[in-house]
Amino acid sequence: MTASLFSRDAPRPLAETLRPAAIANVIGQEHLLSPEGPLGRMLQNRRLSSFILWGPPGVGKTTIARLIAAEAGYEFIQLSAVSTGIADLRKAIATASALRDSSGRPTAVFIDELHRFSRPVQDAMLPAIEDGTFVLIGATTENPSFSLVSALLSRAKVLTLDRLGTGDLAKVIERAERHFGKPLPLTPGARNALIAMADGDARYLLGLCEELMSLPPDAPLGTDQLASVIQSRAPLYDKGKEEHFNLLSCFHKSLRGSDVDAALYWAARMLTGGEDPAVIFRRLACAASEDVGMADPQAMVQVITAWQAFERVGLPEGRLFLAQAINYVATAPKSNASYLALDRAMDLARRTGSLPPPKHILNAPTALMKDLGYHAGYQYDHDQPDAFSGQEFYPEQIAAAHPEPLYAPNERGFERDIRKRLAYWSAKRKSGR
Q1: What is the rounded CA–CA span in Å between residue 384 and residue 249?
Q2: Are residues 224 and 249 in the same domain?
Q3: Which of 24, 59, 124, 424 is 20 to 30 A from 348, alpha carbon to alpha carbon?
Q4: Does residue 25 sit in the same domain as residue 148?
């Protein structure tokens, strides 16, 4: 159904020229396309159900959609959510309905960039998918859980495509070389660097191959020469969407797991992708409290000091302060006891309601308050031995229940000393009773 974007005589991009003509020729994605994979099973049965291909650019989403429909015997209609509205969608539905009624042939509607469709347009597809007017094949680079309506997700399987690995990209280069009838003018080291530049994107890699093949004959390019001829691909990173949160999660968990090298790596990934360093410092501050806490109270001081230094100095020297803060938090002893203590306190406060405080710890600025017993019997801790009175500060009802301690420091780092202090005060409090 879809007209070709190119006339037969017009020059075409290498990625379009070398687009596989059969599923067997697709590089990568064996977990989906093998006979045991979900798409492989659909092909064996020649019966498609709606599915969404989710993966990074240049891994074969459009190619797989076309070939699956063709090899299963489905009419193929291609749309793009970037330029398609409800009117275009209704036209495609009418075409699929007429084809089914006239010949019984099923139709697959492929929608590229499916996440760009608004909720009303997504909802408009549901009846036609539900009654089998067409099978939906969607393609998206964004997490469908965040970008697609739940009703659509319940009617279509989400199939994840993998980023192409080094071996897959090497096969892509070999196909380009067979097409041109000559090898790429690169040394082995530069060839590996070219694969790294592609960052898992076969379409981008073929564009690089096409550019290199157009160079005048000369000695093979080395790694440094290649870098001067070809610009490196910008890393895949969306500061406002899923990749942003994924990398932040990896960074925080590396800090918590005391893997300083991994923490530095994930921070570098974010910086390379253009992330605001303040975002990384905010996560560091959270980790310094949530995961280090009182095991090393200096962790928070280090992070905030490094953050302030960064704001005063800026890049590139500011990276030194960020690295120091990362190294400190990642290698510090870990304790979430403070975090858990507040959780327990919140739970206790919810369960016990608005209990009155003990009167002896209430101030009595007026005569009436004194007559009511406010502040009576209060012992000023600094007047006591070891600056510890051992008085009760809980509401009477809670104290009578002898609750378990909310803050339970670990035997790690500075909390080991805190644990000893709490045990000492607890013993004195009990002896005073």
Answers
A1: 48
A2: no
A3: 424
A4: yes
